[in-house]
Amino acid sequence: MTEHLGFGAVLGRLLKHRGLGVQELADRAGLTAEEVRAVLAGEPADEGLLLRLAPALHLHAVDLFILAGRVIPDDLAPLDATARPWVPYVVMNAAHLPAERRREVLEIVRSLPQEERRSDVTPERLAAPAGGPGGRVVRMFRYRNLDWPGMAKTLAVVTPTYLSAPTYGVIGAGRKQLTPRLVTDFAALLAIDARELAVLTDIVLPGTPPPPAPEAVDSAALLWEARRLSATQVRHVAELARSMRGDSGTGYIVNLPGS
Question: Cα–Cα distances in Å, from 24 out to 15, 19, 33, 36, 160?
Answer without folding.
Answer: 10, 10, 8, 10, 37
